Amino acid sequence: MIDYTSTSTLKKGTIGERYIKPWIEEQGFAVFTTDSKLPHDYDLLATNKQFKFIGEVKTKCAREFYPDTGFDLVDFKHYQTVSQEEGKYCFIFFADECNCNVYGQWLHLLEEPTMIEHNGKTLMYPKIETYPNGTEIIYFPLSSLKPITEIEEETCFELQQLTKSNYHGKTH
Length: 172
Fold this sequence. Notes:
Blueprint: H1 8-26, E1 30-33, E2 44-47, E3 52-59, E4 68-72, H2 73-86, E5 89-96, E6 101-106, H3 107-110, E7 114-118, E8 121-125, E9 127-130, E10 136-141, E11 146-150, H4 153-162
Parallel strand pairs: 3-5
Antiparallel strand pairs: 1-2, 2-3, 4-10, 5-6, 6-11, 7-8, 9-10
C-alpha cells in the first residue's frame, strides 16, 4: 500500500490544513480531520450547533499570469457529489504559498458564472482548461475568493520547496 502521507502533495496539504483549522475554530466550529494514510473524500468536517460543513484544502499558488486559481475538474465534481450526498455545504480553502495567504469560498458559489476584465480581455469563470496530458483544471477568479488568514514567511518557503510545478520559476 502506498503511504500517501509521504508524498509532497500530502505534506503540503497537511501544512495548509494547519493554518485553516485554527481559523475555523475561531469562527465557533469544532473541526474534525483525518490522519488516514489513504485517500479520503474531504479534508475536514466542521460543526457547531447550527451548521455543519465539509472542507477541502488546496495548498497551491494562484496562477502567475491570470488572476485565478484552480484544481482538477475530477476533484471538483467529486466534491459536488460528496456535498450533495452528505447534505452539507463544502468550502474550498486555498493555501497560497506564493502570496503567503489563505483564501476560499463555498463550492456552490464558485459554480456561479463570473465575468472579469484582465489585460483588456474578458474572462469567463469558472474556466476549464485541458492540458496535453489530458488533465482538466477548473479555475476560479481570485476576486471571488474571501481572504482567510496569512501564512508565515518561513512556512511559505517550506511549501515552495515541496512544490513540483515549474510555473512559478522553480527549476527542480
